[in-house]
Amino acid sequence: MDISDAQQARLQTFELVAYWEGAANSSLLVKHFGLSRQQASQDIKRYLELAPDNLSYNTSRKCHQPESGFKPLFITGLAEQYLAWLAQPLAIETLPIHTLSLPARGVPAPLMRSIVQAIRHNQRLEVDYVSLTNPNRQGRVIVPHALVQTGLRWHLRAWCEHKEQFRDFVLSRFRGDAILSGPAEQSAELDKAWQTQVELVFEPDPRLAPAKRDVIEHDYDMQDGQLKLTTRACLAHYLLQEMRINPKVLDGMPEAQQLVLVNFSDIKEWLF
Question: What is the pTM of this model?
């Protein structure tokens, strides 16, 4: 397909909105990408050349609409892709939507730059860190290899020379400056919990009535009554937290618990 990455992104957006909302025109590309009207029209012309049977032009509404035999060219056709697009800060709010404002956990720019450079160039990093168990600053030398977003927080996965093990550090709990201090001897390849993949298997809480279990199965698009999620072993605990599941304690109300982890014994060695 002889198009640039930038044009493909524009054509994907055009197709996405046309497919899910039933109509799209050049104004979408003008507003979303800051194009001239002429450039937007050229993009649409190119899309129609690539997929001539997908859209037809409605002269009264002045927009392109999907035909009954529409076959996605740039999009997946999955609702999750459209919802993800709606959640983008730059997305044009064509539907009434609202996104919760979550608290920001600030990370100073100089600190973040040092962390990124340490990861990129496999460098040791001298830092000060605090935690709930040790709220006073404690100097650490770490070797970071990955950033992890776990819902409300960003973590840094790193080798800790003090503890002599790979650990997770909350970004907002670093204090002061971070100093690059030379090449590291540790790397992500040596982090067993990072390299190991584990599968978490969930089922509807068995205390629920069959009709309610059916609701949960449909919510999570379960197959044969189970939801299976694969993640890195060191992230399994965070995944359970995001799913609001305590694998050791059942909530008193099954409607609140909703899901249970059925293979706890398989992953317990990786949990906190």
Answer: 0.79
